[in-house]
DNA sequence: GCCACCTAATAATTAATACTTATCGTTTAA
DNA sequence: TTAAACGATAAGTATTAATTATTAGGTGGC
């Protein structure tokens, strides 16, 4: 097996053929004429056959006629591949998989991703919504590149970057007595029928822990939870982002004492390098969400 | 547009992936480990992204995972192309177009080409038979690579190499009075009904020219000519090779005075380089036919 | 026919690149 | 904890590719 042919040499030959002379080919390649002469001759010697007729005009030999289309093919394939790889390298092309908690997925991501795809039109995005724990798991297992989730437990394989905080409040019907309050302390909730949900654990290590512990109801499904609240079956606590703001029947009252926040952060694996498109997404998310109140 | 990626660098990357370590990849590539390290790093810098995870084990980055199959593709395409081109360069593969006069085509080429294709099984051959003049024309116009023909007129675009001589003789019915002669002089033919054919011009510049000039019949088609002779309609002159030796009714008597020979030679263009496969054929024909009496 | 002119080949030199040897710092496994 | 394996780095060398300057070979104009 012969040693590698150099793409550049093939390109030289093609250009000489296209231009019809070594001189003008050299000009277009920003080389001098002897550079082409020598490179072509070196290639010819390696192949053991001349590509160009020597002596008179620089026509191709029959062997050259055979080779040049093949050279063109390979150079074309190289260029397409190189272009493709470069686009992926600089993050203008690729596929990013993101997992987020549902509240972020529905309230924050739509506008954000619209802006992202406007800026990076050739990046494909897959967005999964899962609960906070499963978001971390998907990141850790490499099922997604990035996660946006509430940070609740450190994992040494994952790297967390804080984005913003999300205040916990009480959600109840608009006609509920608590609805008129500007802000609430946990004592005000005693005696209320509290329905727990997936975010209730955020209160566990606070002064309001007892409230949660005494609650008999647990509903994980947000749609069911909202329906229960609308029916006046009780109240619950939610991070503001998880509260459906457009709902006409329910209202959100911030919890003042204790002031509880859900810390939302960007999660990625610590070992694996992100694909360039994911790096672009990461930078975009940090730029747009870091330190923002929402 | 980025500068050319080097096939060799891509090969290095692929080998590191296959072997799982820089060390063993280097061993298989007959290089030292730092050579690979540096080459890979150079490529990574040009792409602007790492292909391998640095720090811990040498796994591929997601970007590397994306690239390596494409690198493999290009290297594979390169190798196939290089192989193909090399085979054509050394004449083990290709297509040769030959034109010969009919007598050579039917009497000499069959066995010769059988031997050739046994020696060069991957070379395709096209064989045309045409008259001597048109053989030269086909060569001159590049329709064929090589011609085997009688040399009768110099052409500055063509290069002739003598192969062998072909004696002219008289062809007549076995029951003809001349048939019993061992050899003949032109005087013996006077009074005979001579049928001219395409090869009769070979006698024009000899002592027998008058015979030909006085002949009233001309038949160019060999089948018709033979039929005429078999019918006893006259006699003709032919080079020995053009005489159908298996014919039971006709016989060939060498012409002694004048002794006329048809010079058969190999013809090719003087300007154009032969394709490697044609070079192989040329060498083969010269080896087999040069100086041979037949 | 001779002379300019255009082109490619060659020679000498320099720049760039690829590789080697030697060494160091980590990590892995005994 | 040490030895072994691995990769990164540094310094030096070899190889390759490019430059400039020059030569040589045709071609066309006069």
UniProtKB/TrEMBL annotation, chains A, B:
Assigned GO CC terms: cytosol
UniProt-listed Gene3D superfamilies: Periplasmic binding protein-like II (3.40.190.10), Winged helix-like DNA-binding domain superfamily/Winged helix DNA-binding domain (1.10.10.10)
Residues of the HTH lysR-type domain: 5-61
GO molecular function, one term: DNA-binding transcription factor activity
InterPro entries in the cross-refs: HTH-type_LysR_regulators, LysR_HTH_N, LysR_subst-bd, WH-like_DNA-bd_sf, WH_DNA-bd_sf
UniProt cross-references to SUPFAM superfamilies, sorted A to Z: Periplasmic binding protein-like II, Winged helix' DNA-binding domain
TM ranges: none
The UniProt record lists the keyword DNA-binding: yes
Keyword Transcription regulation: yes
Keywords tagged on the record: DNA-binding, Transcription, Transcription regulation
Similarity section: Belongs to the LysR transcriptional regulatory family.
Entry-linked PANTHER family: HTH-TYPE TRANSCRIPTIONAL REGULATOR YBHD (PTHR30419), NITROGEN ASSIMILATION TRANSCRIPTIONAL ACTIVATOR-RELATED (PTHR30419:SF8)
Protein name as catalogued: HTH lysR-type domain-containing protein
UniProt source species: marine sediment metagenome
């Amino acid at each position: 097996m012969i040693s590698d042919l150099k793409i550049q040499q093939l390109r030289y030959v093609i250009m000489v053929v296209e231009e019809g002379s070594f001189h003008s080919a050299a000009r277009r390649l920003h080389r001098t004429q002897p550079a082409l002469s020598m490179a072509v001759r070196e290639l010819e010697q390696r192949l053991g056959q001349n590509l160009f007729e020597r002596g008179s005009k620089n026509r191709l030999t029959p062997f050259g006629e055979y080779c040049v289309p093949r050279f063109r093919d390979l150079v074309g394939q190289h260029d397409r591949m190189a272009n493709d790889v470069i686009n992926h390298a600089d993050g203008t092309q690729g596929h990013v998989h993101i997992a987020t908690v549902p509240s972020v997925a529905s309230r924050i991501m739509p506008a954000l991703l619209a802006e992202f795809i406007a800026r990076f039109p050739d990046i494909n995005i897959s967005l999964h919504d899962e609960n906070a724990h499963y978001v971390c798991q998907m990141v850790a297992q490499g099922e997604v590149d990035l996660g946006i989730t509430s940070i609740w437990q450190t994992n040494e394989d994952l790297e967390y970057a804080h984005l913003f905080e999300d205040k916990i409040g009480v959600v109840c019907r608009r006609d509920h007595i608590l609805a008129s309050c500007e802000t609430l302390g946990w004592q005000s909730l005693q005696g209320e029928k509290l329905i727990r949900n997936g975010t209730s654990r955020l209160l566990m290590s606070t002064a309001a822990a007892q409230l949660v512990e005494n609650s008999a109801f647990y509903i994980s499904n947000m749609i069911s939870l909202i329906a229960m609240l609308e029916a006046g079956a009780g109240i619950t606590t939610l991070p503001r982002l998880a509260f459906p703001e457009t709902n006409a029947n329910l209202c959100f009252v911030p919890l003042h004492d204790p002031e509880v926040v859900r810390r939302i952060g960007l999660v990625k694996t610590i070992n694996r390098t992100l694909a360039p498109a994911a790096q672009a997404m990461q930078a975009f998310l940090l730029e747009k969400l870091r330190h923002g109140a929402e």
